Fold each of these.
Amino acid sequence: MTNIAFIGLGNMGGPMAANLVVAGHRVTGFDLVPAALEAAAASGVTIAATASEAVAQADVIITMLPSGRHVLAAYEGLGAEAGLLDSARPGALFIESSTISVDDARRAHQLAEAAGMRSVDAPVSGGVVGATAATLTFMVGGAVADFELSEPFLSSMGSRIVHCGAPGNGQAAKICNNLILGSAMIAVSEAFVLGEKLGLTNQALFDVASTASGQCWALTTNCPVPGPVATSPANREFQPGFAGALMAKDLGLAVEALESTGVEADIGRLAEAIYRQFAADGGGGLDFSAIIDVIRERSTKESA
Ligand code: NAD
């Protein structure tokens, strides 16, 4: 049994903390929202009055917060409030699982190291369903020894744990993957709308592309039209799934990384602009595959 502090008990953190309790750990949690605290307490998490109190006796500290700004403020403290790095025992392992920029993740590592802590960045994919079922994929950046130390805890919350290399590389893998995913979903959606205009049934296009060179996850698992894949969000009015707001956020982080590295990526930048607009226009709460409706609505010209 290990003493674990869990900071950020929201949609993802709540069920992740619950799975650590199931695995037999003593989990102390903190969140700013009373409802999140109540739900966590019901699943066996001990609630602390402050984040500092939560981490004081912990060997492992996990953060699952909205953004890099929140993570760095929690690590360093805000105003009179002590930071997690001041309050934890030297040598504790920090596991940062929020989706944040590669630069912020590297900054968090540096701060942790300067405070005498061990740390990994370990963002996830798999959503709330994966967090609840303990089937998340963790993409981990950090020294080999720190990765090995984190692995048993990550295994209690996920089914696939991949060491991606140096500090920040977990976040790098996450945004590169989502750059592919966002771009692919737009391409698949454009192809279905074009097929519809040309008189092709969605099923016929699916039957060909799903076994031909157009095959990809956006088509075969998260198909943006109802019918061909019974479990895809298109069959349930685009209830997520993976929300458009999160895709817009992740592509924004990818564009930040494109800018800091000088990589020319026309498709990725366009995908970011398309999803940013989609979220601003009210699509943020829908599955990201609902982008097909935007493409369909904009394609109003009658076919020749
Ligand atoms: P959420 O908004 O449901 O949870 C975040 C929680 O952090 C909230 O309960 C909030 O009150 C709490 N919080 C904020 N500041 C705090 C502080 N200083 N101290 C303590 N608690 C604080 O978000 P979520 O969906 O759980 O996502 C968390 C992270 O995981 C995000 O970075 C998100 O991008 C990433 N992520 C989410 C999903 C998903 O499907 N929801 C999938 C993969 C990755």
Amino acid sequence: MNKGTILSGMRPTGKMHLGHLHGALLNWKNLQEQYRCFYFIADWHALTSEYAHPDIIRQSTYDIIIDWISVGLDPEVSTFFIQSEIKEHAELYLIFSMFTPLPWLERNPTYKEQLTELRQKDVYTYGFLGYPVLQAADILMYKANGVPVGEDQAPHVELTREIARRFNHLYGEVFPVPEVLLTPTSKILGMDRRKMSKSYGNAIFLTDSDEEIDAKVSQMITDPQRARKSDPGDPTICNVFSFHEIYSKLETIEAIRNDCPSAKIGCVACKRMMAASLKQGLEPIRAKRRELASNMERVKEIMAEGNTTSRAIARNTMAEVREAVKV
Ligand code: TRP
Ligand code: SF4
């Protein structure tokens, strides 16, 4: 039976945090069981916004691969690759750019939003406008049937669908039209209750030490209505409680559900319990991380193998594309 192909990627612009874990990565991990999965490092995409300080890209590439394996993405089951190692992506991107109408790119809501958000980075460039065309090349190169992404990326995948249809219409059926698989948003927020993000400085990283976790948890905003310990709290709107629900034992969760609204437990004690559960829950990931970080040769080997597998597929697709386009 053909299991169908899944592909997704991440830009290497920093280390993985709990937002990535509970948003994308655990979802990717589950998909491995049902599909042929490709997960890749979108380093050319990172260059679209980080072109002035590219050092972060190389550094985070290996950090991210180590994180992926540590959380249970299995290189024996899924294929990992690095975008810039598969030069065929650049050729397919160029061909797609010939027939992608400019208005499709200019009206893209994610593009418009990022232009304003990333103003200090000066992303008013040709490469940044073409970002989703490169993304279409990533996806279609492996003839993916499904692309698991967050809501912000959905317009890009919609564009991929339009590019696939337009290619097939102009040159004959080569590409499947991939589905967007929306990743449910993570219930976990950053320490300040905004979405967890490196750029907000509110994230807990998979690489954080026990001391860093303790310090960050103690700063977390809880139920904002609860100013004093004697005030009743509401766990259902408390981010600390969301962490408990993922990382603590059922008895602990039940106890807090009872004792917080009756003000029998205070936030300081509640946070201390949560930090303990979190550290314990992350320990297997951190242990695996330490093991891999001390065996970089193995990590590089894993990447080289994934790159080789992916390159072979990319070569096949490009042969078909050149045949279809006749250039
Ligand atoms: N744009 C994606 C992000 O920022 C990364 C990405 C690049 C991607 N190419 C992709 C995701 C292809 C899915 C499929 O998160
Ligand atoms: Fe949140 Fe716990 Fe404080 Fe209740 S006691 S408000 S669940 S931190």
